[in-house]
Amino acid sequence: MAIKPKKKKKRGDRTGFTTGACSAAAAKAATQGLVTGQIPDSIECKLPNGQLVKFAVIESQLNDNCAHAVVIKDAGDDPDCTDKAHLTADVCLLPDASGEVLLKGGDGVGTVTLTGLGLEVGGPAINPVPRQNIEENVRIAGDKLLQKQGLEVTISVPDGEKMATRSINARLGILGGISILGTTGIVRPYSTVAFRASVIQGIEVAKANGEDTIVLTTGGRTEKFVIKQLSHLPPVCFVQMGDFLRYALDTSVKEEIKHVIIGGMIGKLTKIAQGETITHAGRSKVNTQMLADIAAKLGVADDICEEIGTAITARFAVERLEPLGLDVAFQQAVAEKVIDTLMGRYPDKFTLRVLVSDFKGTQVAEANSQEGKQ
Fold first, then answer.
1. Position 283 confidence tier, pLDDT thresholds 50, 70, 90
2. Which of 153, 187, 221 corresponds to the end of one domain?
3. What gap in Å lies between CA 197 and CA 317, rounded to an integer?
4. Other beta carbons within 10 Å of 331
């Protein structure tokens, strides 16, 4: 009896809301409480994209001078580390600051310690669009109060410091908590736009902090591999680019990065060698005929080269050549092909070094654009 293959679980497409949008909603609810004497159970909040959305307020406290409100973040079907975070706003009166809205970061909101993020060093990691959105909603709700006094808004996130350990915040110099983010207010599941933006930002931060070397990796395993191999470099130099090679290299050129190092395994490196700049599995297939040609140059028999050329994966070629003792030489040749391909596309823009990892995280090959140059 044949066993039917399990169907892959379909990814959901339910959208959610950003930490910035939820913070703005909590701040507006607290402000409304100061104005009316009662914090509402739900609040309509204007998102950065102009959309009006109603948020539930799950916790509130009120006295004469301060109001406290909490909105739970719903990230939709996006596997975000801040899903279900309690975005908390404490809004207090500032009697001697008529018309001012002062925004602060409380517990669980990260503190900026490096330049390059467009935020004040030493200040809270609340990005510019959420800052503007929080203030806009507070001014809408607190217009009457602001005619005579100011408002101090403190955003905090219980357990935010723990959540941040599952993000790249520390590498960007954001310590002690999460960032308050969101350019539209909407979270879209598995957003490639957000990932791409994080790649660009990582390189910009490294440059802003005086680094001239960027280490690009294709995933978590290769990142661990290169961090071990290049432990002398500061954490800010390491950028997990995923499939976004083109954006990583274009940004490196723009930021005048002098040295680029790519760490990867044979599959992704083959795609780079064949000229793909977006290396996602769904975008392009591995050119196994190119691999067969490389194997042929190493003296591999025609029948084995044909097997490699008709296979689906690059890993097959490595495993097929291993018994012949040619797997390392083969991966070295692929690394050199990566150098040739990218140096042809980015001539004299940066030096390039390629580190090849096996599936156990051990370095098996290395190529360098400076090899043989004076």
1. low
2. 187
3. 34
4. 26
Residue-wise pLDDT for 329-341, tens only, equals: 999 999 999 999 9
Same domain, 169 and 238: no
Alpha carbon distances (Å) from 3 to 8, 44, 175: 15, 52, 50
Given 187, 213, 241, the domain boundary residue is 187
Residue 9 has pLDDT above 70, yes or no: no
**Per-residue pLDDT, 5:** 42
Binning pLDDT at 50, 70 and 90, where does residue 196 land?
Answer: confident
The domain tally of the chain equals 2
Q: How far apart are CA 234 and CA 40, in angstroms?
A: 47
Domain that holds residue 316: 192-368
Rg, Å, the chain Cα set: 26
What is the pairing mode between strands 259-264 and 213-217? parallel
Phi, psi of 13 (to 5 degrees): -125, 20
Same domain, 177 and 277: no
